[in-house]
Amino acid sequence: MLAFLNCEHINKLLDKLDLINHSFDKCINLDKVKKAIFYVKKYHGNQKRDTGEPYYMHPLEVALMVADYSFKTDTIITAILHDTIEDTTLTKEKIAIEFNDNIAEQVLALTRNRGGKKTSSMKMIQTLVN
């Protein structure tokens, strides 16, 4: 059932979030994070990066970086879903239904500008944690 979680990048992220929960007495909702991981894998599907690795690995790496600065479930989920509106068929409306309006708005805010410029990882982290 949870076979989609069998991946080194996913395990690394979930282990880090679990450690944060235990070490800092935080309450990052791992079930909601797992749901976001399911969605990012589902919607990015077989997309590949220029390196040939699955595209969904990039959002997981971003979420790992964001977790260094924010212990909020919504922020971690936004990092995981940040490319879905621009690169997949997942919509803001579907994100709002499946997660919440706040996450949907944050994902939309991080969507590539109409000029095609990507947001840098550091700018994204600053946007998410402020």
Automatic annotation (TrEMBL):
A Pfam family this chain is assigned to: HD_4
Source organism superkingdom: Bacteria
Any one of the GO CC terms: plasma membrane
Protein name: RelA/SpoT-related protein
Annotated organism of origin: Orientia tsutsugamushi (strain Ikeda)
